User: Fold these one by one.
Assistant:
Number 1:
Amino acid sequence: MTTENTASSHTTQNHNTKNVTDSYGLHQSILPSNDGLYGEFGGKIAHPQLAQAMSEIEAGFRNIIKDDDFITEMQRLRETYVGRPSPIFHARRLSAHCGGAQIYFKREDLNHTGAHKINHCLGEVLLAKKLGKTKVIAETGAGQHGVALATAAALMGVECEIHMGVVDIKKEHPNVSRMRILGANIVPVSHGAGTLKEAVDSAFETYLNELDTSMFAIGSALGPAPYPEIVSYFQSVIGREARVQFLDATGKLPDKVVACVGGGSNAIGLFSGFLGDNSVEKIGVEPAGEGLETANHAATMTLGVKGEIHGFKCYVLLDKDGEPASVHSIASGLDYPGVGPQHSLLKDNNLATYESATDAECLEAFMALSRLEGIIPALETAHAIAYAMRAAKDMSPDETILVNLSGRGDKDIDFVLDKVDLSK
Ligand SMILES: *Cc1c(COP(=O)(O)O)cnc(C)c1O
C-alpha cells in the first residue's frame, strides 16, 4: 500500500527539521518580508512612536530566539510548567461513531490553564523581561488571553494590565476573577459598545504612554508586525510535536490536519508543522454562527474581503459603511471580523483551505466528544471537531484526521447546559 511506503520513508528522516527550510524555525510560506508583509497581507504600523516600539520588539525577538539561555528557559517551562509535550490521542469511539476516517486529537486542552494560549503568553512575557520591561499590557474579549497572560506574568514577576469592555466583564465573570486572583489589574472600558474593539483601542492608548516600561502582548497570530511572526513562532511547538508524535503513533502522516480559526494562532501552530508536507491537507474551521446566509456569523475567510483592521491587512468582514462588522459566534474566542495575515496568504496560495461550522453543529460536536470520549472541549474547539466529524464520514477507515484540541470546555458548561436538552 502506498501509505505504508510513505510511512517508512518519513520515519527514517529527522522529523524535527525535515520540513523546516530556515534555521529560524518557521516554514518559509509563513515568514514575513522586511516590511512585515505576507504577500499583500499584514504590514507594519505607521504611527512613528509605535513603529519604533515595534522595531524594538522585533529586534529583541530575533535575538532571543537565538539565545541559548532563552531557549533553555523556554524548554524548561514547556516541560515542567505547561506540561509539554501534550499527547496525541486516538478518539476510537468518536471515529467509530462517525463511521469513516480515524480521528486523532493533539491535546492542547491538557496544558496548564487549559488551552494553547499559554504557549505564546510565556514567550511574550519572557520577551518583555529580556527587553527590560516591567509590565505587559493587553486587551481581552472572553478573558482567555487575559488569563493566560496573567498566569505567565505571575510566574515571571511582571506586572499585568488587562483592558476589557464592561459588557465582557459582566459576561465573563469567572475569567475576570481568575485574572484578579493571579494579580492582574483589570481596566474596565465603558465607551462605545464596551466590548473587544474598544478594549483594543484603550490598551493601545495606555501602551503609547508607557512605551519605555511596558510591552503590548497580543492574543493571537494577528496585529501589525512583528506580532503574527512572534505568536506563530511560539505556537509552532504544537505542529512540531504533533508531526513527530503522529508518525510515531501511526507510522504515517495524517491525511488532514484541522483546527478552529479565530485570529488563527492555534491553527497556524498546528499547520506550521506540516507546511512542508504537500500530502497533508490543512483545514481551518471558522464559525458559521447562525448560518452563512444570515448576518450572524464570523466566517472571515469564507465571506470576507481584503481589507484592514487594527493596523494590518487581512481578510475582513465589513459592514455597509466599510467598517469591520460586528460578528457573531457561539464561541466568544472566534468572534472577530478579521483573521491573521498568514492564514489570509495560505488561503490565496491554496496551501490551506477554510471551512465553517454553525453554532448548532458546534453544540452537537461538543456533546458528542463529551459523551463518546469523556472530553469536554471548548466551544471554539468544537467547531474543528464538528468539521472533522463531517469530513470523516466521507473518508475510509485507513485514512486519518488530526484535530487540534485547542482548549477544554470548563468555561462553557453553564452556557451549554442552557442550550442543550440533556434528556435527549
Ligand atoms: C482563543 C481561543 C481560540 C481562538 O484563537 P486562535 O488564535 O484562532 O487560536 C481557539 N480555541 C481556544 C480554546 C481559545 O481559547
Number 2:
Amino acid sequence: MFLTPNRENHKERLLKSLKSFRPSGRGLWHDISEKDWNNWRWQLKNRVSSLEQLQQHIPNLSQKEIDGARLADTKLAMAITPHFLNLIDAEDLECPIRRQMLPNIDETYTAPWELGDPCGEDGHSPVPGLVHRYPDRVLFLVTDRCAAYCRYCTRSRLVSNALGYDFRPNYKEQIEYIRRTPAVRDVLLSGGDALLLNDTKLRHLLTELRSIPHVEFIRIGSRIPLFLPQRITPELCTMLKEFHPLFISVHANHPRELTTEVRDGLSRLADAGIPLGNQSVLLKGVNDDPTVMKALIQKLLMCRVRPLYLYQCDLINGSSHLRTSVRRGLEIMEQLRGHTTGYAVPQYVIDAPGGGGKVPVAPNYVLSHNADRVVIRNFEGKVFEYPEAPDGTPLHPRPAYIEEPELV
Ligand SMILES: *Cc1c(COP(=O)(O)O)cnc(C)c1O
Ligand code: SF4
C-alpha cells in the first residue's frame, strides 16, 4: 500500500510540525554564558529596542519596518527580549512572530473607527489604575511596562509611555477602593505586566489584596511566561503559592511561542497549583488560520494551559493591517468545536467598542426555536431536534394513572 500525498496529509504534517517543542536558540547571543542567558534581568537589559540593534539581528528589514521602527518611540516603544526575538524566522518576511513584534509604518494609518482607548477603560475608572466595569470584579493596572511590546496592544495608550499618558499607579488608592467596595470579589492584575515586579514588591501587593476579606479570587494576566520564561523561577512559584486561589492568564498567539523553555516555565506554575488559562488575539497572518489555531490550542493543553478567550482584535489606533474579520473568526471557531478536545476550545469574544465589555460570539448552532422544539445542527452539519413544551416542562410526561407494566 502506498499513500498519495494529498491536502489532508499535508495539513496533518503541518499540524505536527507546528506542535513540536523547540528551544528558542541563541542567535547572535551564542557566546553569552548559560547563567546570563537564563537570568531574567539579563534578558530585560538586553532587549532589542533600537533600529540599529534590530538590523543586526534581522538584516532583511522591509522599508515599512524600518520606517516603523524609526517612529515606534512616538507611538508604542519597541522592545523584544532576546528569547522572543530568536523565534523570528529572519528569512520569512511574513513570520507570525515578526508580524506581532516589529513596528510597521502601517501603524500610522488610523481607520475612522479606531480609537486610543477602544474598550472605554478610562471611562470606567473610579480611581487611576483601576477599571471597574463588571459588578463583581476589577482590573488592577500594576505598571505601564511589559517585557516586550505587542504592536496591536489594546492598552498602547499607556503601556511603554510613548504617548506621554504618564500612567502613575497609586497602589494605596487602588487598594483602598477595593477595600471599601465589598462587591469586588475578583481582582485581575494586569497592565503592563505584573510579573515584571520583583518578588518582594509582588508579594507585598498580593499580601495587601489578600488582607481584604471580600477578595475571593486573584488572577494575574501576563505575557511574561512567553516573552521571558526565565522570570518563572522556582522562587516566584513558591511565593505565588501562598496566595491561592490564584490563577494566571497567559497570552500566546502562535504555537511557535510555546518553546521548551516556555513549557518548562508553565510547568513550574502548574506544579505550584496555579490554574493556567490563555487569551489569544485573532491576528491577520499570525493565527487567522484553522490549522494554526488548532495547533496553538492543542499545544497549550500539552502545557496544562486551558485556552480561555480568543479576542477579536480591538479597534486600537493603527491596527488595520493586523485585523481579520469576525466572519473569519467564526469560520475558525467552526473548525474547532467538535473537531478537537472541548477543553481546547476558547470562547470567541468581542470587547464591545466604547466600553460594553466582552461579548461572546459563536457560530450559529440553533437553526430555529419554535414553540415545541429547538432545531439544532452539529459540528458536521447534521440536523437534530430537541422537543420541548412551550412552558418549558418536558413533553409528554408519563401520566400518573398508567401503571408500570408487569415484568414476566
Ligand atoms: C476582561 C476583563 C475582566 C475579566 O472578565 P472575565 O469575564 O472574568 O474574564 C474584568 N475587568 C475588565 C475591565 C476586563 O476587561
Ligand atoms: S504584553 Fe499585553 S499589555 Fe503588554 S504590550 Fe503585549 S498586549 Fe499590551
